[in-house]
Amino acid sequence: MPTTVFTIANQKGGVGKTTTAVNLAAALAEKKIRTLLIDLDPQANATSAIGVEKQEGRSLYGPLRGEGQALDMVTPTSYEYLSLIPSEEDLAAAEIELASTENYLLRLKSVLAPIRASEKFRAIIIDCPPALGMLSMNSLAAADFLLIALQCEYLALEGLGQILRNVDRLKAAHVNDDLQLGGVVMTMFDLRTNLSRQVVDEVKNHLPDKIFASVIPRTIRLSEAPSFGKTIFAYDPSSPGASAYKNLAVEVIERFSLKS
């Protein structure tokens, strides 16, 4: 079956983007969906959160510069069905260097083409930096679907409009005609506040077909897990956070027909 590429992007930091990338990838792997997680953020939070050591020369920095192959950077994880392309600090230089290359918005797409062609993975999930810079724009140009992690607070709604406008610009410029908004994942939901419910309702009104029913709660266990190099399933499998990401994975599998 062909590979489906998802990018998880948001120009705002601290919205649960990396937490969602890591735990959704792990949840898909637990459902025996062969998944590749790509850490495109120079901070390498997804890499450490999944328990993989940062290694010099193992990120996509080289392939983006035309040095080496992305397939050679694929690293196993503790999950049988989950692989990782780690990040490293050098990737920060790509933000500057990409701008001076030919077809600079399509570099990642060409780098990932052999991985897609290999059909080793059913799903690729790209975790982007918390900014709409060169790396994030490249990930949007390479993806089939954008998944937006959106914090349950009002300022997040402004960011939603901004990223959707960027998607429209990419499509208008024919950089990626096929890119679609795959869905909005509401994160850091606090049952105790009316605000969380109001923000979810607002997104439902604007994007009724795109919002996922699975809402990710604000929990200490989800915040703690990355510091131990573990997904929520390895850290606290019976927690509300683990249940939420399992439910989200089921929705993603059904919405995008990831099971053969």
Strand portion, in percent? 5-15%
Order of helices and strands: EHEHHEEHHEHEHEHHHH
User: Any idea what the CATH superfamily is called?
Assistant: P-loop containing nucleotide triphosphate hydrolases
CATH architecture: 3-Layer(aba) Sandwich
Briefly summarize what is shown.
The protein has 260 residues and is an alpha/beta fold.
Per-chain topology:
Blueprint: E1 4-8, H1 17-30, E2 35-39, H2 45-49, H3 61-64, E3 75-76, E4 82-85, H4 91-97, H5 107-118, E5 123-127, H6 134-142, E6 145-151, H7 154-172, E7 180-187, H8 194-206, H9 220-224, H10 232-235, H11 240-255
Parallel strand pairs: 1-5, 1-6, 2-4, 2-5, 6-7
Antiparallel strand pairs: 3-4
Helix pairs in contact: 1-11, 5-6
Question: Can you walk through the features of this model?
Answer:
The chain is α/β, with parallel strands linked by helices. The chain has one domain (about 5-255): P-loop containing nucleotide triphosphate hydrolases (Rossmann fold). It contains eleven helices and seven strands. It has a seven-stranded mixed beta sheet with strand order 3-4-2-5-1-6-7, with helices on both faces. Helix 1 (about 15-30) crosses helix 11 (about 240-255) and helix 5 packs across helix 6. The longest helix has 19 residues, at about 155-170.
